Amino acid sequence: MKTIFHNANVITLDAGRPRAEAVAVENGRITALGSDADIFALRSGAALIDCRGGSLLPAFIDAHIHLLAYAASLMSVDCSPDAVSSIGQIQDALREAAQTPAGRWIRATGYDETALAERRHPTRWDLDAAAPGHPVRLIHRSGHASVLNSLALALAGVDIATAEPPGGYMERDLATGEPTGLLIEMDALLDAAVPRIGDAELSQAVRRASDNLLSGGVAAVQDATATNGPDEWQTIRRLIVEGHLQVPVTMFEGYASLGKLPRQALGDRLRRGPVKIAVSELSDEITPGEDELAAIVWQAHRRGRQVAVHAVEQRAVEAAVHAVEEALRRKPRRDHRHRIEHCGICPPDLAKRIGSLGIAVVSQPSFLYHSGDRYLAHVPREDLPHLYPFGDLLRAGVRLAAGSDAPVVPPRPLLSIQTAVTRAGRLGAALSPQQSMDVGQALRMHTLDAAWPAFQEGERGSIAPGKRADFVLLSNDPTSVPPDEIADLDVEMTVVAGEIAWPPHARRSA
Predict the structure, then answer these.
(1) Is 71 part of any domain?
(2) Same domain, yes or no, for 91 and 227?
(3) What distance in Å separates the CA atoms of residue 439 and residue 14, rounded to the nearest whole number?
(4) Would you say residue 508 has pLDDT above 80?
(5) For 480-486, what is the mean pLDDT?
(6) What is the pTM of this model?
(7) What domain range includes position 493?
């Protein structure tokens, strides 16, 4: 099928030809671009899509998302700061959810203790008061902590005698030693105890997640879940085959499943990505420790694999850099594209080491918007200049990509682009504005430079002949509007492999 997208302000993000007016597409690939007059000469037999003067860009790529967790969050009780502002309101939401047969699990997500009036985590007893007959799991917005009520703790086998796993923490009542219900970095235990949502509910949730991504202009994702293995691969494959998931997925392989995933399936719609290594950071300790982390990175590197290390605090980032440094010393490899996910605290000297080693950083500008006030209140003053230091990383020559980390924050790339430029939090306060970037850099962070860590820059991330026809049509030019208005632009169309995927009712006009 031949299609021409015309009457557009085409922002290609291709340095060889930055702008155009029209793009010709055939069989899901870009065949030509140029002026309307040039491309209209190729119109024979083509369907025409009038972009009505809007800005046509390469579709956005979410380079760090937890797809199934994000989908599940859409079917859970919303306890995010947008929905609740106190523990009392969390209780009200749980009471409403408890209007189901006793014993059925209640999943709630997104709470942030710093945004609650009480300025503390809820406890098991708070949750018991709202839903005593239902096991409740309330997940923190970070995804690294949960609060369980008493029934859920019992079903999970957690009591006063339970020992924390390495890197995990269980809060206890200071007087009795009893668990308060707050469990940090203990998901392995909880995931084994809490029933997974059924296939039908998961399919519905993933369809909603897919539509949300497409409505934001996202046409490809990289799933960064550390527990991904063969079961998750088969689940995502089924969801694509059955039509619930329209967005191609690059799936990270959890280190515990190293070597168990195939390279790809369904053409390019499902691919294996890097080996994910999660570093837990509690009480100024990291798990795995530096030596163990270096050994794990080496095992993946020696097999020719790419690694993606979750590292937020400076000590974890330093450990990740050291591990990659040692692996490259033992077995040099060009174009390895090892990745650090997040890189939350990173002084300039550390940024330079990252750049010199060719490590990519995949970070989350939207964290500054959603958590900026919490950072200002709780991040040590001496660390604030190095908080998500996009400017320093770019100046050090680091390839910098963006992801949402959804469900931690919603996958809204336009808000992420705006925040990368303004570094403004929800209430307007800017965090370390010297670490900002220009709009062009922010766009590349969400397109071409998001494709690069996945070895996909040859087919995604810019508009050029031969590449996939993945586009987003915006209501205005993000490079010409005031930076603080970028998030207000409308996504009028999302195109995946030459087909209009959003809005669902869109039709071609001949």
Answers:
(1) no
(2) no
(3) 15
(4) no
(5) 98
(6) 0.93
(7) 1-59+462-510
